[in-house]
Prior knowledge:
Strand content: 35-45%
Shape: globular
Number of strands: 38
CATH superfamily of the largest domain: Copper amine oxidase, catalytic domain
Amino acid sequence: MWLLGLSWALSMLVTTVGSGPAVPPQGRASIFADLSAAELAAVRSFLLSRPELGLSPSHGGPLAKNSLFLVELLPPKKRLALRYLDQGGPRPQRQARAVVFFGGQAEPNVTEFAVGPLPRPSWYRPLSFKGGRSVPFTARPMTMREYEELHRVLAAAMAPLNRLLRDATGFWYHNGSCQHPRAGEGDGLGQRCLTFSDVAPRGLASGERRSWLILQRFVEGFFLHPVGLEVLVDHRDPDPRRWGVRQLWYNGRYFSSPQQLAESYERGTLEVARLPLPPSRQLFSSYEPRGRFTTGTPTKVHGARVCEPQGRRYRLRGNLLEYGGWSLAFRLRSSAGLQLFDLRFNGERVAYEVSVQEAVAFYGGHSPAAMQTKYMDAGWGMGSVTYELAPGIDCPSTATFVDAHHLYDADGPVRFARAVCIFELPTGVPLRRHFDSDFQGGFNFYAGLEGQALVLRTTSTVYNYDYIWDFLLYPNGVAEAKVHATGFIHATFYMPQSQRYGSRVHSHLLGNLHTHLVHYKVDLDVAGTGNSFETMDIRFENISNPWSPGARVVQPWLHWQPRRSKTGSWVPTQHPHVGFCPMPPDRYHLAVTRHHENEHSSSSIYAQNEPWEPLVHFESFLRDNETIEDQDLVAWVTVGFLHVPHAEDIPNTATPGNAVGFFLRPFNFFDEDPSVASRGPVIVRPLDPPAFTRLQIQRWTPASPGPCSAPAPFTYNGTY
């Protein structure tokens, strides 16, 4: 069996049958490979050539038009994939998923299509959601074209407030483009522009599209520079000429229009929040070094680095990754990020799929934007914002970097260089070790195996936050999924009344408290698809001591509980359910369901703007109360943490202490630790105890890995 390791429960899937490979590994992996740039372009060209769709380019033109928003791989159905992988069946046809915004018709909507066969598509057909529901137009993700119209509406609305904004902040909202200021150029403040960040959900009920915008000074790290003004814009209508500002909040007061706010300022009845101009250098929101460490240890030199003294110990062929006993196929979905398929150890399938599903952040605050913020990042193109990884910082310089191509709100494939990296990581702690003391100042033997793991990594920069997504493979058959949160905190204007919702992290800045929750899909197929689910809990007993009459023994024992139906197949989280915003996947630390093709994901790109009646309602996965004994099972895992921002989150949230994840661990699946196959251990035995002048050192790799790691051969002296 394979253990799903979480800090709060021990949950395991019991296996019944075996499986074996039927096609070469690279052939297995390629059916899950992301669409190439040529395939993305072919799908776009084919759909634009269909006159009945009436598609226009995404950029430019009116908002009320038919346009192609997203193209990505449509993975094969599991039964077809397994027939090909395990039984020598036909190779599944390669298809694409295409999302089209039909805004140029009387009843606007969003429709998804399957397009195939690739690489030369010749047909398309609509895809449906569970229950046959259609996607309302107001549920669509934001586009650059819509942001352009929001900017235009906001610029016009801010014209009456230019005097207030200039006097209070030294900045104002320009009716044109602004160049991002660069530190060290001029006064470092550029054209003194204001910009905005928008929050979501966009309204309070289904069908609305009203967004609160936070105005900020457009300097480096503008997320940390709100000016105390928030604006509610109604942009539901497909015609932007019907959009308008419906409400404003300034320094704790609400106003019905920009004119009302401007009049209050002119009459002198407005309490103005006057902000000093930010400095041109060493801005608190920048990465420029400032301050000093007190010890005097070197800081102007490079720190420790990862090296590969004898070359790489992993192999990458297309999207097939192999390392030690591990093999897997991976892809980077534009919609939601990393997705692993056909995860195997020593040829035995462990999981059919392990993938990121959703990342949410629920905020609290005093201002309207803060109290409205409930981010669901799949709705912001979480998998498409995979910007370039920096060698030596984001990944070791020795890493293998892989480009990605996305067609997301674009008029063709866009190449994202170095979007994924792969590297072997010294963990800094042995995988296992033992010092066998003779209790007389010497030892009988020492043995240890250095700790290493293979890391598959990408990042998502979703507006202010940066998520670092890792999958780690260890040589003892353990796999780990982990996410680090970093980047800029989501912050609002500080007021004394807002202190209960976070921390004052700078003079006019509140770091708003929030909860991060991340949802994963883990389709475990341990030695086959016939799995069962049971939990193992620790209980205690108080019994009579059998060898000492009258004494008692308190000791732990294992309580195994089979979970035979969905009714008992979940473990609730300790986070209160957010009733205004139903995101059921985040109610549960763990939920187990049967595999169904129409339950392939727990969320969707539409959940952010339609959380009240979500197109994918995870609760429905659990309602039918199917049996889950000896079935094809899927585990849905939620991990998360509470973040109360503090001054040390300036300029950015640091990764230590802000990471969560889970492990997949074998549990009596192997006869012994499978890392015994590694040739990396070192065994030291004394040849002449108690003198300990001669030692036998056994190792199965070269005595010295090379000068980049250790300038001299390995030595050891175990006396004390």
